[in-house]
Known about the structure:
Elements: H1 4-12, H2 16-19, H3 23-36, E1 46-50, H4 58-63, E2 67-72, H5 75-84, E3 90-94, E4 110-113, H6 124-137, E5 143-148, E6 161-166, E7 170-179, E8 182-192, E9 198-208, H7 212-221, E10 224-230, E11 236-242
Helix pairs in contact: 6-7
Amino acid sequence: MTDVADHYRQLLAPIYLWMAGGADGALIQGAADLALLGITPTNGTAAVDLGAGFGMHAIPLARLGYRVTAVDSSALLLQQLRELGSGLAIRAIEGDLLDFEPEPTALPALVLCMGDTLTHLANAAVVGRLCARVARLMAAGGRFVTTFRDYTLPARGDARFIPVRSDADRIHTCFLEERGEHMLVHDIVHERRQDGAWRLRVGHYPKLRLDPNQVVQFLEHAGLRAHREAGPRGLVQISAVKAG
Length: 244
């Protein structure tokens, strides 16, 4: 079974900006997500974006005046973040989410883990460790927000096929396959070559079938006040606050 880092390096990272609809549209969408969360301009407040990718949320955060530590395992996506966020207060770090360290001078008042990042972790126990680390390293009064897709419901019939994006030269479809506590995500990418013929590339990797209520419990066990709600684009959203 291909792990997440290998799958992104071999297949997804090179087309991820395309999957998101291009940089301009993705950054507009990221800014809209922040606005829905009530995140407003600031003057140098520290923040962390876990699974930052090419900067869909890190860049809008920095534009609002945050000093952002952006963590991701993909060197290619972080390079795109550096290029798109050139001149902004963003510190890009390639590494594992569980090893993240805030900037030395200030604990973050805001920690984001958006998209479907949490489901990339190996199991629920690892998610619990991440929640505990966030709670420990976040400033008093700080806020943690995560979104992810709920894969706990069975995948059946045509619902297992998800069209991601298509244009004249590329078609990307996902196929979901249950595998115990994981959902195997098969990425199927057709690309038109320069000679006009189509090339097929495929790969698969596991996503955790993570119970949102369990994430709330992890955060509360770590001392945060947490609640679950509907998030953007069909995702579950969980927000948590550390006592001041």
